[in-house]
Design goal:
Blueprint (H helix, E strand, L loop, with lengths): L1 E8 L3 H10 L6 E7 L8 E4 L2 E4 L3 E10 L4 H12 L7 E7 L26
Antiparallel strand pairs: 1-5, 1-6, 2-5, 3-4
Helix pairs in contact: 1-2
């Protein structure tokens, strides 16, 4: 199993969520995050004609656990949907997951990551 963590622009979240659903990823965790990045060196960041204060950069952090076979398709989906071509589009990381357990029924390993509507994992 793999875990994907992606840090994306808040403005691209709905598009990423929609595209993930299209490939069968209909469950993932996300939360608001803030960080600093390369744009800080310039003292400001312009996005779609608006200059933003770069003391912090608001982002969305996404976490997905999935089967190995679905890794590249999911990374490609996030990269395409989150892309603007500007500095600050974000990052995607992948990790190996040694074990997972579904609390509700005790399912372990890859079977714990599939569920109703899980098109990729069947």
């Amino acid at each position: 199993m793999k875990k994907i963590e992606a840090i994306i622009r808040t403005s691209k979240f709905d598009e990423v969520k929609t595209e993930l659903k299209k490939i069968g990823i209909d469950f993932f965790s996300y939360w608001d995050a803030s960080g600093v990045g390369n744009e800080i060196a310039r003292g400001h960041h312009t996005y779609r004609g608006t200059v933003y204060d770069t003391q912090y950069i608001p982002r969305i952090f996404i976490s997905i656990v999935l089967r190995d076979i679905n890794l590249q398709k999911t990374i490609d989906c996030i990269q395409k949907a989150a892309f603007t071509g500007e500095i600050g589009d974000g990052m995607i990381f992948s990790y190996n997951v040694e074990e997972s357990v579904r609390i509700s029924n005790g399912a372990r390993g890859e079977s714990s990551t599939s569920g109703p509507g899980d098109l990729l994992n069947k």
